[in-house]
Amino acid sequence: MLKIEDLHVEVDGKPILKGINLEVEAGQVHAIMGPNGSGKSTLAYVLAGRDGYEVTKGRVTYKGRDLLEMPPEQRAAEGVFLGFQYPVAIPGVSNIYFLKAALNAIRKHRGEAPLDAIDFMKLAKKKAALVQLPDELTKRSVNDGFSGGEKKRNEIFQMAMLEPSLAVLDETDSGLDIDALKVVAEGVNGLRAPDRAMLVITHYQRLLDYIVPDVVHVLIGGQIVRTGDKDLAKRLEKEGYSEVREASRL
Amino acid sequence: MTDANRQTLLASLPSSFDTGPDWLRVLRGRAADALREQGLPTKRTEAWRFTPVRSLVETEFSVDDRGVPSLVSALPDGVSVRHLAEVLEGQPELLQARLDLGGVPSHFAALNTALFRDGLWIDVPPDTLASEPLEISHRIPTSREPGVVYPRVLVTLGEGAELTLIETYSGTESGQLSNAVVEVDLGRNAKMSHVRVHENAGLQVGRVDVRQAADSRYRSTVITLGGALLRFDVRCLLQGKGAQCQLDGAYLLEGDDHVDHHTLVEHQASHCQSTQTYRGIVSGKGTAVFDGVVIVHRDAQKTEAHQENRNLLLSDTATVHTKPHLEIDADDVICSHGATVGALDDSQLFYLRARGVPEDLARAMLTYAFLESIVDRVSHDATRARMREALLARIPYGEEIRGVT
User: Fold this and answer.
1) Cβ neighbours of residue B396 under 8 Å, at least 6 residues apart?
2) pLDDT of residue B4
């Protein structure tokens, strides 16, 4: 599904990612763990196509095609979804109607007919219930006046609506209390599917108690220094990143 | 009309005024004297620095009598609308001291005072609540030659009266000048919502002058949809304790449009509140000017005054001059002002695109949302819906956005 080869990325001329290699198969959930400043969010943004992230070397193949060539909206249309660490508030643009524009743009790209208002609202109601997002929030301006937890639930709600093939979830757990975390994790787990891959980026192991990954990578200093199964995350929790950093130098 | 009838604006002033009631002749005479003395503004006149006023001052226009706005809505119960000419003929005493713009007017307003022939008087008697909006339309007439009209409107609300007034100004092509004056007089506790829509007209100069008694509320929303040269001045005099005014504006410029908004709010009494929120989008080679002044007199304690002007520039050749400022002589006041000029927010744009919204549509959605927040403040539902439509008609992808916001 996703193949990252020797990816080097600079931001403002400063190297952030220094040779990432990663392969995610359909149906798998990979976790990327790492301390602050290790390049986790940079990886997420590069995959989604944000401006200002310069790929100086390497390539990213998604479903056999060059992902880096596509503008962000095309990536979304091809099934890539980024769950933002800090979802942006957009006063004046309604959550639900913006999502309708997005979904119908994606459907058009796939050669499907647009959903009419009634079918769309039915679908939205069903998906909002999945993450317990109140009706009234789906109708408000995008993330405007939402609490931290509501913003994250809104991200997963949108993901459920757009049904991506590859979901990159950037610190979906940050700013959530344990109850909100469970709701979000349940929402994500409900979307696990044999034809869908997920890249779950997090600082803490806590989230991985609820979204159990198939593979765990440790990202430090712009490189993946360790790869293992879910027990690696547990070990990290106990020993901390510095231990892993030391060990990886051996 | 032939060339022989065309004159520059100043040259069209008669040497004496021989018709109408005495007080009006005096008023017109004083306005004409002031004009002859000061002339019309030039680039060196501070308040006109950024307005390409020379084209107006030097052009020869023929005076066109078709400048009386027409009533296009039903007349709400209890509200009266009369022609100024008819009242001046039959009961001039009713208008005495009500058409003087609060003193000797200057420049274009003086020109209107000296030369208007007719207009409308909208009166809402005390304690009358007009349930539906009253709408008047100013259509600048088409003509093969440059013509000038002098629309004049007087709005008076008695104590405790309420009115929503919608004014639309539309023209056909450039070359025709509308030089309008609207005076508003609000009694104690009166409430007025005033919506003005200026659509693609050539040349418009307009002045709105509001005088507010104690506890009155005046709320103005002006939507300006481009034009070769539009210049609007609003002045609110908060004369009675506890009066409030809210001035909102949204403007959308493209091509070679030039739009100038000048506001002046004078806090003359205590416990008054004023807010000004103007937002604009300028693309192409458009130029927008916002010049807002709040004056707080020495006795106007407990004043609250806020001013904000935000602009989005969508091209490298678009220009904005913005100057909100405060002059405060009282000490117990809460005042703020601010201005911004920027581009669309990159992080918002990326968020929409990352979800699959095509870039052009995402830009249009954000552009519309920026102005829509002003339209949103119009409280009358049907009017607000119309304002939205007017904006959508001007914004790329308006059809798609209609269902999106």
Assistant:
1) B360, B364
2) 54
Question: CB under 8 Å to B119, separation ≥6 — which residues?
Answer: B67, B68, B69, B83, B84, B85, B151, B152, B153, B154
Determine whether the interchain pair B357/A102 forms a contact, defined as Cβ–Cβ distance below 8 Å.
yes
Q: How far apart are CA B378 and CA B250, in angstroms?
A: 12
Q: Are B129 and B146 in contact (CB under 8 A)?
A: no
Residue A240, amino acid:
G
Residue B2's pLDDT is 45
Contacts of A68 (CB under 8 A, 6+ apart): A46, A49, A55, A59, A60
Contacts of A50 in chain B (CB under 8 A): 350, 354
- Most A CBs within 10 Å: which of B312, B345, B348, B357, as the mutation test of the A interface? B357
Closest Cα in chain B, distance from residue A54 (Å): 16
Structural contact between residues A218 and A232, judged by C-beta atoms closer than 8 angstroms? yes
What secondary structure letter does DSSP report for A4? Answer: E
Q: According to the model, what pLDDT value does residue B203 have?
A: 87
Q: Quickly state the pLDDT bin for B100 (edges 50, 70, 90).
A: confident
Model confidence at A55: pLDDT above 90: yes
Q: What is the 3-state secondary structure (H, E, C) of B136-179?
A: EEEECCCCCCCEEECCEEEEEECCCCEEEEEEEEECCCCCCEEE
Which two structure tokens, joined as six digits, stand for B398? 């308006």
Runs of H (alpha helix) within B318-394: 346-354, 359-375, 381-394
Q: Which residues of B touch A166 (CB under 8 A)?
A: none
- Exposure of A69 by Cβ count < 10 A (0-12 exposed, 13-18 middle, 19+ buried)? exposed
Task: Out of B24-28, B107-111, B379-383, pick the least confident.
Answer: B379-383
C-alpha distance across the termini of chain A, in Å: 32
B212 — pLDDT class (breaks 50, 70, 90): very high
Predicted confidence at residue A250, as pLDDT, reads 47
- Token pair for B194: 């005033």
| B chain contacts of residue A103, beta-carbon cutoff 8 Å | 356
